[in-house]
Design a protein that fits this description.
Elements: H1 3-18, H2 34-37, H3 41-52, H4 61-81, H5 93-104, H6 108-121, H7 124-136, H8 142-149, H9 157-166, H10 174-189, H11 202-221, H12 230-254, H13 260-267, H14 272-284, H15 288-297, H16 304-313, H17 327-340, E1 351-360, E2 369-380, E3 383-391, E4 396-397, H18 407-418, E5 424-428, H19 434-449, E6 453-463, E7 466-475, E8 478-484, E9 489-493, H20 509-525
Antiparallel strand pairs: 1-2, 2-3, 3-4, 5-6, 6-7, 7-8, 8-9
Helix pairs in contact: 1-3, 3-5, 4-6, 5-6, 6-7, 6-8, 7-9, 8-10, 10-12, 11-12, 11-13, 12-14, 13-14, 14-15, 14-16, 15-16, 18-20
Length: about 525
């Protein structure tokens, strides 16, 4: 490729990044210019150098995140091809640092992916730089820090030891501290490290836990003191919980018996996850209060899975009733925890009941997976919310009520949602090229063959080389979302009251697409 051609491509990408046009569709990565997905090392280097120099001056946050994700994916593939162990960084650290500080002002997750490149490069200079940034100027969101550090969970002992040696002394910002502790705890528990890297700082960790205990007590009594809106209060609570959980685990793994008094205080907090972690740490330290608390917490569906896991690790699981340790009971707990998370309902369901269980070959897994469907109910003043969730290969529930669909289609919806592959994506109808428009028109005629009128094309979808048209359709005066690949046509009403569910929660195009893909995948995997 000529230098001029490379310059033109780079200019095209920079123009695209500065255009503040919102993405449409469900898979933004497949909406980026194809040439970006095929950039060479020199082109990526030129791009991050331009971004580091402030070109373009104003970045679109979503596009910046996608570029950072693709940059990290490129680095991951290059380092894997090089069989790791390189002594030199793939990208210039000065450029990565400048891009990171720029991304930090635009999107925290994009900044996290920039730092992830440092962890992927895995040379001493890059790891030292990563440790310095996490010590002094990390992303504000712990999830972005977790993205940055994710390659270190699979690193060898020498690299993990070197990373912790490079961290500054003292405590870190909350967004970094919890994730650093999680890595230290994980490496200690899995024997990647011979001992906990912060063993000599156990007194500091116990004092920090005491401070967090006081903060959480105040949050329980008067949340309004910690913010003027629900989001701020929830963020403060989540950060405090994440750090408290990590501290409890660390003190237990370190074996600090001096921490028993503060762990007992933390055990009295109302949050089930915190109670479980404090109980696990106390039990690990030989405190009977911790062991008895783990046994009691196993009866609570939100605490059960972790309580049983700690009991098994500490070889006291036989003291927990067997019916609380069977796979279905643990799956119920996993779903209850997911539903109670801050990103979902924020509290556990009023009731849960096993609907069905199957062992299936599932997307992204080589071995058969135990799959459990649960009906769950939330009794909220003025209304009752019911739906079905999945636990097993993945834990998830949809906003749309899918409870009255056939069981096969419920499993298919979750399988289609969970499936990830470079050849599974969709292109919104308004972004189709001439050739793709012809394909969409041909597929629209398949609906017509079944007496179904296409009212609006939504997207051309791709499943491992097979094309299908997703569209809003009408038949006999009723409105549906439909999809057809020429061999199979599938439609669902736009509202669930037409399915006899007693409400009008929308069945959107995403559910129809998930079911269509999931049907094909599960049939292929489970003939």
């Amino acid at each position: 490729m000529s230098h001029r051609s490379q310059v033109d491509q780079l200019r095209s990408i920079l123009d695209w990044m500065s255009t503040n046009t919102a993405f449409k569709g469900t898979n933004s990565v497949h909406s980026v210019p194809p040439l970006l997905q095929n950039f060479s090392l020199s082109q990526w280097t030129d791009l991050i150098n331009c971004l580091a120099q402030g070109k373009p001056p104003k970045l679109d946050p979503i596009k910046t995140r996608i570029v950072a994700q693709l940059l990290a994916a490129f680095a991951r593939n290059r380092m894997r091809a090089a069989d790791l162990g390189s002594t030199d960084p793939l990208f210039p650290l000065e450029s990565l640092d400048a891009f990171y500080h720029l991304a930090l002002t635009v999107d925290n997750l994009a900044a996290g992916h920039c730092l992830q490149v440092l962890a992927l490069q895995a040379d001493e200079e890059s790891i030292r730089d990563l440790a310095d940034v996490l010590s002094s100027n990390p992303p504000e969101d712990w999830r972005s820090v977790a993205v940055a550090m994710s390659p270190l969970w699979h690193a060898n002992r020498d690299l993990v030891e070197f990373f912790f040696d490079q961290l500054e002394d003292g405590l870190f910002q909350p967004s970094s501290m919890a994730v650093l502790l999680d890595l230290a705890n994980y490496a200690t528990r899995n024997h990647t490290l011979a001992e906990h890297p912060w063993m000599e700082r156990s007194s500091d960790l116990a004092r920090l836990l005491q401070t967090l205990h006081i903060q959480l007590e105040k949050l329980q009594d008067n949340p309004a003191k910690f913010g003027n809106d629900v989001d701020t209060i929830q963020r403060t609570l989540n950060d405090a919980i994440a750090l408290t959980v990590s501290l409890c685990d660390a003190l237990g793994l370190i074996g600090s018996k001096d921490a028993i008094p503060v762990l007992r205080e933390v055990l009295e907090l109302s949050h089930r996850r915190i109670q479980t972690e404090a109980a696990g740490a106390l039990a690990r330290l030989g405190d009977d209060v911790g062991a008895e608390s783990l046994i009691r917490l196993a009866s609570d569906r939100v605490a059960r899975a972790r309580a049983v896991a700690y009991a098994e690790e500490l070889e006291i699981a036989e003291r927990i009733s067997e019916n609380l340790r069977v796979p279905a009971a643990l799956a119920e707990s996993e779903l209850a925890v997911w539903l109670a998370s801050g990103d979902q309902f924020g509290f556990p369901p009023t009731s849960m009941e096993l609907l069905d269980s199957r062992t299936l070959y599932w997307p992204s897994f080589e071995d058969p997976q135990n799959c459990f469907l649960f009906n769950y109910v939330y009794e909220i003043p003025g209304q009752s919310i019911t739906n079905v969730g999945l636990a097993g290969p993945v834990t998830h529930a949809f906003q749309a009520n899918i409870g009255k669909l056939p069981l096969d289609d419920i499993y298919a919806a979750f399988a289609g949602w969970h499936a990830e592959h470079d050849e599974i994506y969709e292109i919104p109808a308004d972004q189709l090229n001439t050739s793709q428009l012809r394909e969409a028109d041909l597929l629209a005629k398949e609906f017509e063959r079944h007496g179904i009128q296409v009212k609006r094309k939504l997207a051309l979808t791709f499943l491992l080389g097979e094309l299908a048209l997703l569209a809003e359709v009408e038949q006999a005066g009723r409105h549906f979302v439909g999809i057809s690949d020429g061999e199979e046509t599938f439609c669902l009403p736009r509202t669930t009251d037409e399915l006899g569910m007693g409400d009008s929660v929308g069945i959107g195009p995403d559910i129809v697409l998930h079911i269509f893909r999931g049907r094909k995948l599960l049939r292929s995997f489970n003939p």
